[in-house]
Amino acid sequence: MIHAHHALVLFSGGQDSATCLAWALSRYARVETVAFTYGQRHAVELEQRPVLFEAVRRQFPQWGERLHDDHVIDLSYLSAIGETAMTADVEIAMGENGLPNTFVPGRNLAFLTASAALAYRRGLGVLVGGMCQTDYSGYPDCRQTTMDAQVAALQLGLDQPMRIETPLMHLSKAESWTLADQLGGEKLVALIEEETHTCYRGDRSQRHPWGYGCGECPACELRAAGHQAWLASR
Q1: Domain spans of the chain?
Q2: What is the pTM of this model?
Q3: pLDDT by residue (tens digit) across 182-191?
């Protein structure tokens, strides 16, 4: 049986997915999490996930009671079928198609399909993801139209009322920091700054006001600009 008040959060260990996890824990009675391995350069983000789980349970006990099983799914075929700057040690640059070469074709579609299959087995009626079409790198599988088409396909293919929630879809990065502050106050903001990982290069050797990262890749630039704008708006 699919439960409309039970959710599966696509939780990578990055800023956006950590904010989405807090958002889901504030709304749903039971929350499970899922991550994916696909040969990503920034696999260090996966190492941060247990750190974040432990911190959430310790600092937010009301959420900890709702946080249940975690899952990791191997989608290595995404890197096997083609090299990108997200999965290989190559320079990050813009491609001829106008997209950065960090774009992994079909990644979010694969994530959502695998997540929906898992949610079906687990009786979870909601998928929660950090896709955003406001401050983002231009990936076509982050757009609202893509999510609308994907949820329609999942509902037809599973013959179940599966939903996809994307709480960050229409928020700027600054507004995402504001949302984290609204959800968990200074404790959650500090946790996201210190323990999440978003840098495409997987660099945790450099600490910035907004967190760890190389400070130069598109993910770091977006995160830094959003953090600065959020601080200025307070």
Answers
A1: 3-171
A2: 0.91
A3: 999 999 999 9
